[in-house]
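$ run holo --ligand "adenosine-5'-triphosphate" --emit tokens
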Amino acid sequence: MPLLPPQPWMTAPESRLVMTALGAARFVGGCVRDALLGLPVSDIDIASPHPPDEVTRRLEAVRVRVIPTGIKHGTVTAVTAGRHFEITTLRRDLACDGRHAEIAFTDDWREDAARRDFTINALSCTLEGEVFDPFDGIGDLAARRVRFIGRAEDRLREDLLRLLRHFRFYARYGGESPDPEALAACQALAPLLNGLSGERVRAELFRLLTGPRPAEVWALMVTAGLPPHLLPAATRVARLDTLLSLERHLSLEGPERAVVRLAALLDTDGAGVLAAAKRLRLSVAERARLVALVAPTVAVDPRDSPAALRRAAAALGDGARFLDLALLGAATTGSEAGWLDRITTVLDGWRSAPFPVSGADALALGVAPGPDLGRLLADVRDWWAEQNFSPDRAACTAELGRLVARRGKARRSPA
Ligand code: ATP
Ligand code: MG
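-- output --
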């Protein structure tokens, strides 16, 4: 039996406390898999042969807080010393309609392993580091193979989310090409993706987009015929690939890049982006961000002159959005040398100098509220932006006054 050398997350006092209180428990899934690969471990999942009420009783007896986070599936979350542990009672899945699983608790470790999706996700280990590997997940990790436990098609029919999980795990743990049986089954069952809920698709998609090699794996998903059943407009793999290299260059990473990367993939217009947001059940904020990137009100073309770029930045009023639009623009049209320096110079100048006048200043000069006022302010803002954001409040107010006077004159003189 393989032995996992002691890991900091295993030997931490809170892990010992929880595992000792639970008795026959083992660490399972991702933490064991990633530790075997020498990757960092953040989430700790634990499996226990005891039913959830017994798990709860044992933990509360040692003053560990227990939250019934997924009690229907036999999962509770233990919280101690600021660390969270998801503890799931060993179970077998009786009936799956792709969304809801009817389950039964068991005390059979192998049965619990068999209901998991991939061989590399069915690993478990004791507090002492004794590793259990019922389906040769270690062999598959070494061979960079993401293989379903049992027949791929059967496992996908039980829960179609596994189709997306397959590509996400392949991106992280797979090699040069996916397991042929898994790929064929994904391709065959792709039309069923229509039935998958937006929330579940969104969660997997965002994790895929912010994980390793998203463009390469999305290209594979396009070849397998997935987008028409998932997100029809998400086909611009080359643009995503270019965006990713620009992001790498600027060290842009983290979960908030998911929406920008999705925007890069989408080949659509204002109506199409709303359809995509609806399919994924995006939050109001995510939808607004996606729309602003795919169908922007202000165009940012990195090939434009510095003056035009400054006007665009000031009009957008949002530096992060300006940069993302510039990156998407460069990924779409290509760019010539020096564009990124231009963009960052514009951004730096603009960030250090907020536009110093507002609607109140125009009202004070006797301008009536309404669309005219907005246009006046936009003209002053363009003027300010073109001069490298340098005019101060007094200069901007004077320019506003000049424009108001000129308009008054134009209105009084007959055409
Ligand atoms: P990650 O590092 O991405 O969190 P993980 O392996 O911890 O990887 P989770 O989605 O957190 O993945 O799930 C924990 C474990 O639960 C998996 O390793 C797998 O054994 C099992 N699991 C999760 N979702 C499914 C599913 N849809 N079908 C079968 N087993 C699943
Ligand atoms: Mg996990």
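-- notes --
The longest strand covers residues 83-89.
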